[in-house]
């Protein structure tokens, strides 16, 4: 399988981006293969565990159909570590100027996190149009994002945080949403049991949520 070409926009990688927490490096490759087989090639591995960077490296080397990225990037040094490990995109829950410049200098697409209109305006001033909206549900959900589309039409978002299969279609229907992030296709019991067939089935259902929808 040929690795998908990396688009200019992270938001165009896939309509749903699985947010993955890897505790055991041995799980990384079969988990990623299940997600890719289910139609979700973009995989965000969060830097929340000691296994994360090694997991990114394994996926990058062993799962050519995957586009693996690093999430929960909160320090500039993590940017270089993640890219060196094989990350093809970066996601942060928030941003500072120092972190933003490190991500910009990395040469890979990135999504800085926002939760307020002021943060969106500040990023637009800095030439950044694509952002992670986090924590999506707690920060106002679809109603908040819809209210931003009028005064801030140039901003596009990947909402993440509290989104599931029931709410994802509502987010994906918004004109300023390119994709959503979530972990509902990776239930803890399935991962613990290494039930990759179940993960694949849930990924397939997630990828079908926006069938026929075209990102702007």
Describe the model.
The protein is of the alpha/beta class. The chain is 38% helix and 15% strand. The chain has nine helices and nine strands. The chain has helices at 25-37, 52-62, 76-85, 97-105, 117-125, 141-149, 168-172, 188-192, 196-207; strands spanning 16-20, 42-46, 67-71, 90-91, 110-111, 113-114, 130-133, 156-159, 180-182. Helix 2 (52-62) links the parallel strand 2 and strand 3 (67-71). The chain is globular and about 45 Å long. It starts with 15 loop residues before the first strand and ends in a 9-residue tail after the last helix. The model is unreliable at 211-216 (pLDDT under 50).
Strand order of the largest sheet: 3-2-1-9
The major beta sheet can be summarized as:
4 strands, parallel
Low-pLDDT runs: 211-216
The count of helical stretches stands at 9
How far the N terminus sits from the C terminus, by CA atoms, comes to: 27 Å
Helicity range: 25-40%
Classification by helices and strands: alpha/beta
Overall average pLDDT: 94
How much is the radius of gyration in Å? 16 Å
Strand-and-helix sequence, N→C? EHEHEHEHEEHEHEHEHH
Indicate the overall shape.
globular
Count of DSSP strands: 9
Tell me what portion of residues adopts beta-strand conformation.
5-15%
Summarize the structure.
With 216 residues, the chain is of the alpha/beta class.
Q: How does the SSE layout of this entry go?
A:
Elements: E1 16-20, H1 25-37, E2 42-46, H2 52-62, E3 67-71, H3 76-85, E4 90-91, H4 97-105, E5 110-111, E6 113-114, H5 117-125, E7 130-133, H6 141-149, E8 156-159, H7 168-172, E9 180-182, H8 188-192, H9 196-207
Parallel strand pairs: 1-2, 1-9, 2-3, 4-5, 6-7, 7-8
Helix pairs in contact: 1-2, 1-9, 3-4
């Amino acid at each position: 399988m040929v690795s998908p070409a990396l688009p200019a926009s992270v938001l165009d990688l896939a309509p749903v981006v699985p947010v993955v927490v890897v505790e055991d490096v041995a799980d990384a490759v079969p988990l990623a293969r299940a997600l890719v087989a289910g139609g979700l090639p973009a995989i965000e591995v969060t830097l929340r565990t000691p296994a994360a960077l090694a997991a990114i490296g394994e996926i990058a080397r062993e799962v050519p159909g995957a586009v693996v990225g690093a999430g929960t990037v909160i320090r500039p040094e993590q940017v270089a570590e993640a890219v060196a490990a094989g990350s093809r995109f970066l996601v942060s829950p928030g941003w500072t100027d120092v972190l933003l410049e490190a991500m910009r200098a990395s040469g890979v697409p990135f999504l800085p996190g926002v939760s307020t209109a002021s943060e969106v305006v500040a990023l637009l001033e800095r030439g950044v149009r694509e952002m992670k909206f986090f924590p999506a549900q707690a920060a106002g959900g679809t109603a908040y994002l819809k209210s931003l589309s009028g005064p801030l039409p140039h901003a596009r978002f990947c909402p993440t945080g509290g989104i599931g299969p029931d709410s994802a279609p509502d987010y994906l229907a918004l004109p300023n949403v390119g994709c959503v992030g979530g972990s509902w296709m990776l239930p803890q019991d399935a991962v613990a049991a290494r039930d990759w067939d179940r993960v694949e089935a849930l990924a397939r259902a997630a990828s079908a949520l926006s069938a026929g929808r075209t990102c702007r």
